[in-house]
Amino acid sequence: MSHRYPDPYGTGERPDHEPAADGYAGEEYQDNRYPDQHFDDARHEDERYEDVLHAGAHSGAYTGAQYQETAPAVQHFFGDEEPAPSRRSRRPSKEKQRRRRRRTIVMVTVLAVFAGAVFGLTVFLRDLLGMNEVQDYPGPGEGTVSFVVEPGDGPLVIGNNLASQDIVANPNKFVEVFQQESQGREIQPGTFEMRLRMSASGALGALLGDGGTAVHYAAIPRDQRQSETFDELVASTGIPLEEFTALAQDPQTFGLPEQAVSLEGYLFPGEYRFPVDMTAEEIITEMVQNALNALEEAGVTDPAEQYRVLTKASIIQAEAGEADYATVAGAIENRLRADNTETNGLIQSDATVTYGLGRKSYNLTPEEKADTSNRWNTYANPGLPVGPIGSPSVEAIDAAANPADVPYFYWVTVNLDTGETKFSSTLAEHGRYVAEYQQWCGTQEAGRCD
Q: CA 44 to CA 50: how far, in whole Å?
């Protein structure tokens, strides 16, 4: 191993095979790099100077006249216990490197959390201030939706209602467009056919009659009675009730057969959008035509047979769930057969009796069941009642026209919540199912089975 400075024994001698190094020659050591100066902080930090001190601390002293032993002074400067560190020993230890890495990771984590908090606060403030809200849809929109303008509704109320149905993106934008484009025109009350996600300008045009048709919207549920349907039409169109009831007194005007006693059953259920200038007679004509179309699609074209099928369909609609329509239709057909000795032609439907009594109920008294003056009483009068008892759906009409071939005469819904219906061929079996229904009713709140 070679040394940068004289041998550690201080003799000034070197092996013959090693040349002089670092300015050392002969018996005298001349170090021109480090002239005789005081130790100050700046020079002490010089790496070359530290190397000299380190070497001196280990060799004791340099030989020669110009340089005497310096180790004690150096040792006194750095302390008595440890020598001055060498250049190699000043490299960071593994523990220091680990601490430095941990500090770096902690700093990066803190900065990431801080940046996330700033971003979240920015998004929150933008949402709070409404900066992220869509101000307007590009249009023209999609789908269809009915929108109602009530009497007295102003632009702001209309804008809020439009936005709540997702017809426009922002109510304030709608008001702004109204002020710019309405040219003094007002939005009239009524029901309008609109689109979802329209531009504010497009929505305004539809409401002003420039891009849409003003309509009266009416939703007629299945199994709804004539009186209930008239109430819905009055509320939707504003046409007086008297106009509808007067039309119902002459059903043959609308092509109904002679045996029809009213418009009952022919006011076909569904969603309607009547133009605002449509009359009561035109409205009834459209609804009746829809019922006749459904009968024809089921293969029933004769007016008298249409009336019979429609009457039976209204009972099916009231008595069964959709999954059981065809089975109930088959049981009713069995009761109407001439060779029926099980019920002797009696349909025995609670729904028909209560229709004739002017109420909706599951409970009947013995006197009510025996009342033959009630022309809809199928307990006392054999065969079908004198007419339909509600508005049957297209599914009920199809089942009545095409009943299932079943051996049943009886049916009872044993759970009004699930609609579970049980069928039987004998009165004894039917009695057990009726008891099951009554047991279920006993677990329900008062009035559930009334």
A: 6
Which among 146, 215, 206 is positioned nearest to 181, based on CA atoms?
206
Closest CA to 181 of 173, 170, 190: 173
Q: Which residues contact 192 (CB under 8 A, 6 or more apart)?
A: 146, 147, 148, 149, 206, 207, 212, 213, 214, 215
What's the burial of 160, exposed, middle or buried (CB within 10 Å: 0-12/13-18/19+)? middle
Query: Which amino acid appears at position 427 of this protein?
Result: L
Q: Tokens 């409970």 map to which residue?
A: 363
Please list, residue by residue across 106-130, b when 16 or more beta carbons sit within 10 angstroms of its beta carbon and e when fewer do. eeeeeeeeeeeeeeeeeeeeeeeee
Residue type, 159: G
How would you classify the pairing of strands 24-25 and 28-29? antiparallel
**Which residues does residue 194 pair with via DSSP β-bridges, in sequence order?**
145
**Residue type at position 291:** A
Token pair 């004998």: residue: 426
Specify the higher pLDDT residue, 241 or 195: 241
pTM of the predicted model over 0.70: no
Integer Cα distance of 375 and 356 in angstroms: 7
Phi, psi of 431, deg, nearest 5:
-60, -35
DSSP codes joined into one string, 212-231: S-EEEEEEE-TT--HHHHHH
Question: How many residues would you count in the chain?
Answer: 450
CA distance 310 to 259: 12
Q: Give the model confidence (pLDDT) of 302-323 as tens digits.
A: 999 999 999 999 999 999 999 9
User: Residue 110: what pLDDT?
Assistant: 76
266 closest CA partner among 212, 332, 313: 313
Amino acid at residue number 296: E
**How does residue 397 score in pLDDT terms, banded at 50, 70 and 90?**
very high
